[in-house]
From TrEMBL:
Keywords: Cell membrane, Membrane, Symport, Transmembrane, Transmembrane helix, Transport. It is a multi-pass membrane protein. This is Sodium:alanine symporter family protein. It comes from Candidatus Cetobacterium colombiensis. Belongs to the alanine or glycine:cation symporter (AGCS) (TC 2.A.25) family. It holds the Pfam family Na_Ala_symp. It comes from the Bacteria. InterPro entries: Na/Ala_symport.
Amino acid sequence: MQNIVMTINNFLWGNFLIILLMGTGIYFTLKLNFIQIRKFGEGIKHVTGSINLNGKAADKNGMSSFQALATAVAAQVGTGNLAGAATAIASGGPGAIFWMWASAFFGMATVYVEAILGQVFKKRIDGQITGGPAYYIENSIKNKKIAKGLSYFFAVACISALGLMGNAVQANSISAAFNKAFGVSPALVGIVVAVLAGFVFFGGIKRIASVTEKIVPVMAGLYIVACIIVIGINYQEIIPAIMSIFYSAFNPQAALGGAMGISVKQAVRYGVARGLFSNEAGMGSTPHAHAIAKVTHPGEQGIVAVITVFIDTFIVLTGTALVILTSKVSLTSGAGIVLTQGAFAETLGTFGHVFIAICLLFFAFSTIVGWYFFGEANVRYIFKSKKSINVYRAIVMVMIVIGSIMKVELVWELADMFNGMMVLPNLIALLALGKYARTAMKEYDIMPEPEEKINKIIV
């Protein structure tokens, strides 16, 4: 099975999706006049000015802008930042991090468009506001039958990629980390995580928003501080680590002495693939959260979406990468979370294993909650029934348990395959409907000054 999945991924993640993802990001960067740079400062002010760990409860009309951001970041900042960064470096060399950065920079423009389209095409289904790519894909092309087929294809791929296979990945990394740190049975860890997740799932949007707005700021803050401490202890290796990222991005064999046999193509492939898995720009996942944010204009949530990619890749993921590269841990010492734990342990001793296990529990658990929610939006789209939501919740809990005992390589490859399947219909819709984002950008640009906008949002 793994060979079959890898064959599919070699096609999807060969030149095809990499060119498509990067090309789309570059296209929107130019079309929107470098929106990720122009609106970056305003986005930071918007995010920092609206932080609230106990905001107004989400309801059938949606959630606050910060809760939507927290839900999006909960999905983005997870296994991809801890285990995914390590997997990228182990498989593609330090240069893979450069390609993560590149895909994230251009992806910031892509996610801006995703968030705006999510807002523009959101709907009320069964009394609740919902939205996401399936809803805007319907309007992407004139042939309604083909458009509907693409939207259903996306919905099925999203449910499989995130709610089912993706959450198996998260559970797999949690169980591996706890087994390494405490010797706990992976199956037992899976059962406990499934029960905790089910408690949140069955609480609906109100409980999901409440959990993410509390967990995300705290977990991200603590992890960033830990990364700074480790990197600071190994300060003499910072410059060599950064140099290795840039040098091996274009000449990996020379940078690694040819020992690992990594090519530039591998560095790009694993950098972009793991980058997508981490920041999800262009994948069509985070628009489900941004779509239901209570904002006065789609442009507001667009700039918030830009900041989520920055936080995920340029802060959290980069912190993990520099910890691994400055700690001098052997890149062949393990795969995924084991390599990240080993890097922290090189500097912090046994505490490094324990710290990462605990961090990963919160990171991956919040991602499970976020990805469950994204999948739920698509279950609602396909079935339009409350009963189907409860069945979906139960299946996700089962997948969490199964994922905790699966072989890690197969889990990651399956996640890559389903992620790739989500990308195709989503990017078709983004390119077809990009005019709406450009119109929203122009409208938002002529609105009152940023300070007035932020005050209006907070009030």
